[in-house]
Amino acid sequence: AVSRLLGWWLIDNCPSPERCSPVTREQLFDLSRLPDEFGPVAARIEAGALVVDWSHGEGSSRFDPGWLSAHDYGAGYDGEDRPEPRLWRAADMPEPPTVEGARILEDDQALEDWLSAVAVYGFGRLRDAPRAPGDVERICARIGTIRETNFGRVFDVRARLDADSAAYLPVPLEGHVDLPTREYQPGLQALHCLENTTAGGLATMADGFAIAEALRAADPSAFETLTERPMVFANRAKSTDYRWRAPAIGLDRAGRYVEVRVGPFLRGPQAERPERMAELYRAIRAITRLARDPAFQTQYAYAPGDLVLFDNRRLLHGRTAYDGAQGARWLQGVYLERDELYSRLRMLRRAKRAAMVGG
User: For a surface tag, which of 11, 14, 51, 322 has the fewest beta carbons within 10 Å of its beta carbon?
Assistant: First the structure.
């Protein structure tokens, strides 16, 4: 294989201590002080490494071939180093991907398996995890930093009289993401079952990216509307008033799915030009119908000790109704960011590679 690497890219990634801090691994080099005519004047292989000599008195740089291969931007490296999401429907995913929860606090391989499932499919379940109140925070600290919100650092999901969210009522919940009312909705949510003796209350999960893809195929006009026109999301409570406008389907510049914002009970009064309002509502109804379609919804029961971690910017989670007067249903939850998951996965894989080299 042949790699074509720009001289500016090579000098920008030079690992020598005068250009890259050996302590922080951050660049110390100011590219802007070099003249436009700067570039490599010679290259050779020494002791298996690529050595490049530079013009304008900048000396030489040495590059490990394995590092160059892993970061070759002409051969698929995109700078993110994240697992590729796989879209799914209910028939593909009758149960959440499951890992033995008793191992999670000590076993790095169990942690990697769990987080890899979340990165690829959007969710992963721990079965028989430690189940004392607050254990959800202790377990998720293995991933990274918890995100605190107006619901607290650790929030309890159970029926209560002073509910400030539909989640705290025993009513059915349509598939939704949490906090689409925020500029940056939480990337991950963990729900940990401590008690469940009620009838009903089945959890539902649907892949929002698969729903968006189905909408693109079935109704391109509605898809375009929901990717280009911002919707209003709002949540008003006694002490807070959160509102945000964003498209229901978020795409990056390459057209890849970044997020979905679907929240039937968190829509505010929409703000759109009068001649476009009917078109917006037609699109909202189209994606809501798909989100409700059983073909997309996996259903499962929470057993005490189950902990489900899911991508809150991708999956739509919901619940069937349950009888709040008979038995008890108690989940505890926390929010985190996707960045924490990807960082932890990279660190776990880095440690594994180091152990293999050391062994």
Answer: 51
State the Cα–Cα distance between residues 144 and 147, nearest whole angstrom: 10
- Helix or strand (DSSP H, E) at 69: helix 65-70
What's the pLDDT at 170?
A: 64
User: In three state form, how does the secondary structure of 299-312 look?
Assistant: EECCCCCCEEEEEC
> Cβ atoms within 10 A of the Cβ of 288, count?
17
Written as six digits, the tokens of 137 are 């925070």
Instruction: Name the pTM for this structure.
Output: 0.90
The bridge status of strand 241-246 relative to strand 315-319 is unpaired
Nearest to 188 by CA among 314, 331, 344: 314
CA 332, chain centre distance (Å): 20
DSSP strands (E only) in the chain: 40-46, 49-54, 60-63, 98-100, 123-127, 155-157, 173-176, 188-196, 203-207, 231-236, 241-246, 249-251, 257-260, 297-300, 307-311, 315-319, 329-336
CA proximity to 318, closest of 295, 292, 336? 292
Task: Please tell me the predicted confidence (pLDDT) of residue 38.
Answer: 96
**How far is Cα of residue 301 from the mean position of the Cα atoms in its chain?**
23
The secondary structure of 240-272 as a DSSP string is -EEEEEE-SEEE-TTS-EEEE---TTSB-----
